[in-house]
Amino acid sequence: MYSLRSRRAKILLATSSFALIAYLIRRYRRYILLKKRRTLTNSREQTTTNVTPLTRKTLNKRFFHQIRILIRILIPRIRSDSFLLLIVHLTTLISRTFLSIYIAHLDGAIVKSLVQRNPRNFLRAISIFVSVAIPASFINSLIRFAESKLSLAFRSKLTRHAYDAYFRNQTYYRVSTLDSRLLTPDQNLTDDIETFTSTLTHLFSHLTKPFFDIAVISWSLVSMVRQRKNARGLKEVPGMILIVIIITFMALRRLSPRFGKLVSEEARRRGILRFAHTRVIANAEEIAFFDGHEVEKNWILKLYDQLREQTNSIIKKKLWFVMLEQFLMKYFWHACGMVTIAIPFLTYDGPAETDDPIGDPLGISARTEAFTVSKNLLTSGADALERIISSYKEIAELAGHTDRVYTMLHVFDDCAHSNYQRTPIIPSDNPSECSSALAKRKISVDHRAKGEIIESDEDIIAENVPIITPNGDIIVESLSLKITPAMHVLITGPNGCGKSSFFRIVRGLWPIYSGRLYRPDPSNFFLIPQRPYMCPGTLRDQIIYPHTVDNAFVDDSQLMEILNNVELQYIVQREGGLNAERDWKDILSGGEKQRLGLARIFYHQPRYALLDECTSAVSIDVEGKIYERAKQLGISLLTITHRPSLWAYHTHLLQFDGNGRWTFEVLNTEKLLTLKDEKERLESQLAGIPEIQKRLNELTQLIGEDIITTTENEENDD
Which InterPro entries does the record cross-reference, listed alphabetically (predicted)? Predict the structure, then answer.
């Protein structure tokens, strides 16, 4: 019976072990598969964003190079306000270190008075402790105050520097249109800078004070040890402490997760989620018309789940790392510290040290005081070492934030100097499936534009200038023409043929990859798009944009005349005057916004007005008056429009066919109108042919094919 039970138990144990092994193998294979998928996903994301990933070693030359450049921005000179705040903060940290040592000695004096049962000394020590607590509390508060002020000063310096770079040479346009390295520049300019500066100042406090604490506390402990010359084993104590520190540091460094890369990835996903919310707000009306809220909600939830997954991964990794960190630097160090303190007391074989031979001949109170002081000092030193070693994790996080801020400034500088890197959008997942024609009409945009832009006096001259989109699509391979101020050019063609792209090339928004472009100074151009930009501010600000009230060169009567030119004089009384502040984007109708945009060309009176479908919501009679008044002021009109009513106000025609070909010729308005009438007449005639064919098919079915065939044969016999 016993052997049978034993056999069953063995069989059950073997079966359970086999099942457990199979389960563990299955889980391990699933873990490997998920790890490969995650690695593939991260590699694709890094390829898409074109951001260099952080290496395993956070403290490398790249990090020190980046932090050195950023510190030069934060502290440009010794007499700067940020350097003064840094000195104040450093002084408070040093003062707090000496106060900690003094308070440790006060604790020892209090314990000694208790052991001696001396109320007078006890009350005296307590009184001193309370009096010292007031400046100590102030120093503690001053440390936080100085840290906050220093962080704000650093943030202000870096923000101003970043804004100067962002708004220089149209970088704000180039970084989002011509370059693809920064997905969310708004987050880089706000959250990333704030996080970087706060982390840097916090890490400075957590590293500077511990180093001072260790230096001063070590000196104090050495002074105390020298008083016990008869103790044995003191030479081994520093070596033992050093070994414990090295073991702890190596263990934490070896087992520390890659917090820098994890934090950088979390910040990137947070920025993408914010951008998705911004996109919904910007396109709320279109989404509401199509009831597309479910699609947008699912997309945002997907992005949030990706952010939650990354945050959850960081939390899980911190769980085990913090557990190891607490065990080594709290409990293990505490035990080693007690051993270190005990060695001088246990190995001392000299005479008893006492200041009360009658009441305390064995010197118990003196030993208790020394033990308390040593314990407090070692505790403070251990805390300092703990902050230094645990700061490796914070340094890794700082490396992630440093990389994002440095990359932002580096991309800004590249875009300001026309160095772009953009990942082209490929229509097919397999590039080999793309047609050869498409492949020939795409170029790599990851190089510097080699075309020349030469400033001219008045004329616009293009010599073999290609029109290439930021994605590398070649719209026009070579464009050569000359436009003088006496010309008024009408630009036509199908959608996507290069009409608006021509404006971007002429204005300098897009780079020129070859050829030469002669053009006047950019201040001689003024673009009026189909949806004019309404800036925040008053009605006056809308007219004189991008000027401000301080540099405006017209008075109110001239502004009223400008509004009269575009038939908008009534809007002043309706909205409460030129200084009325409104949300003009929502208050004005589409036609009013277009006419208000056209008012800007009467204010600035540029040499060339680039008009891109800017009168689509304006009536034909008002449109004609505006164009006629603009021509009277000597403004050359370059117009993109589909309205035949505007042909009469132009002298030349630039026509794109959508296949890379173009023509530039003198505009014959009467001939074009005649051809247009003939085209419409032929289209109306051809529109009836499908109806005639349909009716013929119906008659064929009703009469029958045989009858028709017999009738045709009889006619042939006759």
Answer: AAA+_ATPase, ABC1_TM_dom, ABC1_TM_sf, ABC_transporter-like_ATP-bd, ABC_transporter-like_CS, ABC_transporter_sub-D, P-loop_NTPase
Does residue 546 have a cis bond before it (omega within 30 degrees)? yes
User: Is 704 a residue whose pLDDT tops 60?
Assistant: no
Say how far apart CA 350 and CA 341 lie, in whole Å. Answer: 17
Residue pair 185/223 in contact (Cβ under 8 Å)? The answer is no
pLDDT tens column, 14-65: 666 656 666 666 666 665 666 555 554 454 444 444 444 444 445 578 888 9
Q: To 5 degrees, how large is the angle CA 235–CA 241–CA 242?
A: 95
* Amino acid in position 624: G
Distance CA(558)–CA(360), nearest Å, equals 100
Q: 72-91, pLDDT tens digit by residue?
A: 999 988 888 888 988 888 88
Tell me which long-range contacts 657-663 makes (C-beta under 8 A, separation of at least 24): 657/493, 657/494, 657/497, 658/493, 658/494, 658/496, 658/497, 660/441, 660/474, 660/475, 660/476, 660/477, 662/476, 662/479, 662/498
Q: List the single range of 414-423, 443-452, 483-492, 634-643 with lowest mean pLDDT.
A: 443-452
Closest CA to 579 of 561, 559, 593: 559
Question: Residues 559, 632, 606, 544: what is their CA dihedral angle, to the nearest 10 degrees?
Answer: 10
Residue carrying the six token digits 């008869």: 230
For residue 596, what pLDDT is reported?
A: 93
> Is 60 exceeded by the pLDDT of residue 693?
yes
Instruction: Give the integer Cα–Cα distance in Å for 533 and 543.
Output: 11
E strands in 430-586: 452-455, 460-468, 474-483, 489-492, 516-519, 525-528
Which of 335-344, 443-452, 643-652, 704-713 is the least confident region? 704-713
The b-or-e profile of 380-417 (16+ CB within 10 A means b, else e) is: bbbbbbbbbbbbbbbbbbbbbbbbbbbbbbebbebbbe
The stretch 660-687 carries a mean pLDDT of 70
Instruction: Please report which residue ranges of 545-688 form alpha helices under DSSP H.
Output: 556-565, 570-575, 584-587, 590-604, 620-632, 669-687
Q: What is the pTM of this model?
A: 0.67
Rounded Cα distance between 503 and 609, Å, is 10
CA distance 336 to 139: 31
CB burial string 110-133: b at 16+ within 10 A, e below: bbbbeebebeeebeebeeebeeee
Domain boundaries, the chain: 80-231+362-418, 452-667
Distance, in Å, from the CA atom of 81 to the CA atom of 326, rounded to the nearest integer, reads 39
Which structure tokens are listed for 378? 């070692």
CB atoms within 10 A of CB 211: 14
Q: What is the DSSP string of 528-542?
A: E-SS----SSBHHHH
What's the CATH number for 452-667? 3.40.50.300
User: Which strand (E) or helix (H) includes residue 617?
Assistant: none
Count of Cβ atoms closer than 10 Å to residue 651 Cβ: 15
Range ranked top by mean pLDDT from 128-137, 154-163, 217-226? 154-163
**Buried residues in 218-233 as b, exposed as e (16+ CB within 10 A):** eebbeeebeebeebee
The three-state DSSP-derived secondary structure of 279-291 is: HHHHCHHHHHHHC
Find where tokens 């770079």 sit: 165
Residue found by looking up tokens 């897009």 in the block:
510
Q: 134 — phi, psi (to 5°)?
A: -65, -55
> Residues 588-595: what's their mean pLDDT?
91
Residues 216, 220, 222, 227: what is their CA dihedral angle, to the nearest 10 degrees? 170
